[in-house]
Amino acid sequence: MKDLSRKSFQTRAVHAGERVPAADYTPVTTPIYPSVGYLYESMDDMDAVFAGTKQGYVYTRYASPTVSAFEAAAASLEGADAAQAFSSGMAAIHVSLLAAGVKAGTAVVAALDLYGATFTLLLNLLAPMGVDIRLVNAADLKEVETAIRESRAVLLFVETISNPLLKVADVPSLADIAHRQGASLLVDNTFASPYLFNPLQHGADYAIHSATKYLAGHGDVLAGVVAASVENKNKLCELNKLVGGVLGPFEAWLALRGLKTLPLRMRQQCQNARQVAEWLKAHLRISKVNYPGLPDHPQHELAAQLFEGRGCGGVLSFEINRADKATVYRFMESLTVFLPATTLGDIYSLILHPATSSHRSLTAEERARIGISDGLVRLSTGIEAVEDMLSDLDQALGNI
Ligand SMILES: Cc1ncc(COP(=O)(O)O)c(C=O)c1O
Question: What residue owns the CA closest to ligand 1's atom 6?
Fold first, then answer.
């Protein structure tokens, strides 16, 4: 509506100030574009955008400018040709499984120790729909190869650093094994983040993130993103148009802003986690510490090689000697620097009891099979001063 001057008050209230011609300036940071629809000079232009022969946006469930900016940044950090954003890490995982060919009658091989909701998605949602789920020890390459061959799996799913036991996946070898058998490799790279590792550069087909964690980094946005080839990104995009797990523009803007400090945060968080892991290891009340940066971790060498000395991430887990759930809860309640909140990868230091939170949906037998005891505690180190973390842990351990 070009000339509003002769229109009624009611019509002007709706249209005044909108759709100003493209501005002749470039904002330093990407604006938030909340518009759901987009206009073109002619219907032919719009038709061309729908057909994909002209660049542009038609509807925000398909794509939108702020989300595209976040996708471009995530693709760049992952060294990938493209990326697809999602409304959460779980939406990213679910759609990636579909894009890689999961449907009734197919098989999936996955690491036994995975984030609880991924485990539940595979076993409680996909298995009853007719997907054959084989869980393996991903550190045993022979076992992985046999499972893929015998089940004719369409894909192998692993976490670069597993939640919550901190096992490290040998992504280059797993990519070779999967591809030899005609399967895709899907890697949940949430714990490592692109700061430590780029799965696609080591043969993986999909690098998946809960961007809620390190990528966004501030505990204020739920988001997911998958880095992939252009062909796989297009598959993810077409599927997500139907699934609708779309990232909102405001959330994309927060995630994009968070990404900018990823290297600074990760450097500090890796350093803090290593010092906390070493301190806990020497403490009499602690019976076990899981952290790839410790020399006695089973994949310590592999982690050093894959992450090229940049660190081993900001998450670690440990067991308090002979502690039951009540003792662990008392310990968690005594902490003041570590916040007992159900997430990780934030600038804040966080503590979580996997058995009753991230892995609560598993049965006690399933948790025992994976190695998640009632005494296991997971820490995510923030960017605070490490001495404050250590004195906090010291006073809380003294309280139990
Ligand atoms: C390793 C890992 N992958 C995926 C997810 C799911 O991400 P979101 O909570 O963003 O859906 C999580 C959540 O904690 C996670 O830890």
Answer: 89
